[in-house]
Amino acid sequence: MDRFVIKGGTRLEGSIRVNGSKNAALPLLAASLLTDQPVTLRDVPDLADISNMLRLLGELGCRKVAESIGSPRSMTVRVADESASHARYEIVRTMRAGICILGPMLARRGVARVSMPGGCAIGDRPVDLHLRGLQALGARISLDSGDIVATAPSGRLRGARVFLGGPFGSTVLGTANVMSAATLARGTTVIECAACEPEIVDLAALLSRMGARIEGAGSPRITIHGVEALGGADHTVIPDRIEAGTLMCAAAITDGDVTIENCPLDALMAAVDRLHAMGVLVEEQPSSGEPDPMRCSCRVRRAGPMRPVEITTQPHPGFPTDLQAQFLATLCLGSGNSVVTEKIFPERFLHVAELTRMGAQVVRAGPTVIVSGVHRLVGAPVMASDLRASAGLVLAGLAAGGTTVVNRVYHLDRGYERLDERLGALGARITREDDRAEVERIPLVETKSVAQPAASAV
Ligand code: EPU
């Protein structure tokens, strides 16, 4: 298994381009199941979760008919065979986002069998709202051997009013599922308390290019007028707002000066607001062409010591839970007490104990963490079994004195493409190692030969 070895203390400087968004690309790929025509996606990140989604689509009869490798990469997928309907446990357990094939499959094939995703390191992660939403469109849903089995009676869903609010707000992939399913339903669907995340707006943009009739995406009420069929489309994935926010934190925590290209500033208002309060400047740079707030160039640097702040995670446009760990790590070097409250996944604090091992002063009380800023973090071996928590540890390692080893970076590789190389290009001293060699050097038991005791006389 790979790990990162980080020698901290270098200011990051230079320019870096944000990749296409993982969380946008996953439901976009799933939407290719809604048509038998080719769907081309541009700026698809090269990540383990994307490969797993492509494996799942392959099992469901989809073929990759073209691909341009390199960065940014694009690919064209097309359904060749619509007879399969089973998203198996073996794939869904590697990637919870496998659930977002449920809506497209049900709408197009009238049947879907998807392994029920379990919890993960950040919490329980139920899918009750997805199922309630699809049931409102007329789907019959049952559970069989750990699989969700969904069918559309008479082969087609029907439009309905659907309320998607839950105890923690709306659901992003649930909204993606219901919106995708409603595109081919008979009649009009209104989703109330829909997720407003930019990834939903991007999905609506692709579906509209495919011929869907969608109004209101990006607001809490989305209206979808069902159509008879959808066609192919060519679409560029939005840049990854979480990667961009992570890079902003990397500039802040190292007291660096980084220009972030292809930056979805418009989708990061809450994070930028907190950075400003922390004394970090985020300045949009003049563009040579038509300005695009989702693809701009931003210079990020500190204006002085890092000030403490309060952060509460919320559904978009509030502060994103997927940036909580990175900001929490950054605030460990703030000049006072910060308060971070997690309102989407109240258990999402795997990084806290690991940051403490690096000298951070962090106290957790339920969904709230109090961070007392320290002057210095110290390198240590650390590990977190969650993607964003691992990103927080990498940031802490960049600023810490000495060497930090972040173990099991396959979690990071699920969401950040070659983060080691890309931070290295900004001056970070970070190398990727395979930790097996070292483990194998440690003997299983002491093998030194010992003298046998002489047989005792009888
Ligand atoms: N929830 C329910 N019932 C449901 C669905 C969700 O109660 O049926 C609750 C969840 O437990 C949570 C809240 O609603 O408390 C929001 O969950 P949501 O469904 O929005 O999460 P998701 O769609 O499964 C996506 C991202 C996550 C991100 C969340 C919240 C993808 C592939 N995943 O998950 O991203 O944290 O939205 O913004 O888009 C990540 O990238 O590291 C990541 C975990």
Notes on the protein architecture:
The protein is α/β, with parallel strands linked by helices. It has helices spanning 22-31, 48-59, 89-92, 102-109, 128-136, 172-182, 198-209, 241-253, 269-277, 324-331, 350-357, 387-399, 410-413, 419-424, 436-441, and strands at residues 2-7, 13-17, 39-42, 62-68, 74-79, 86-87, 111-115, 140-144, 147-151, 161-163, 188-192, 213-215, 221-225, 233-236, 257-263, 280-284, 296-302, 310-312, 337-341, 361-365, 368-372, 381-383, 403-407, 429-434. Strands 22-23-1-24 form a 4-stranded mixed sheet. The longest helix has 13 residues, at 241-253. The structure holds uridine-diphosphate-2(N-acetylglucosaminyl) butyric acid. The site of uridine-diphosphate-2(N-acetylglucosaminyl) butyric acid (EPU) has 25 residues, from helix 1, helix 5, helix 6 and helix 12.
Summarize the structure.
The chain has 458 residues and is an alpha/beta fold. Helix content is 29%, strand content 25%.
How much of the sequence lies in strands comes to: 25-35%
Report mean pLDDT, rounded to a whole number. 94
Can you tell me the overall shape? globular
Cα-atom Rg, whole angstroms? 24 Å
Distance between the first and last residues' Cα: 55 Å
Main sheet overview: 4 strands, mixed
Low-confidence stretches: none
How are the strands of the largest sheet arranged? 22-23-1-24
Q: How would you classify the helix and strand content by structural class?
A: alpha/beta
Question: How many individual β-strands?
Answer: 24
Number of helices: 15
**Which ligands appear in the coordinates?**
uridine-diphosphate-2(N-acetylglucosaminyl) butyric acid
The helical percent reads: 25-40%
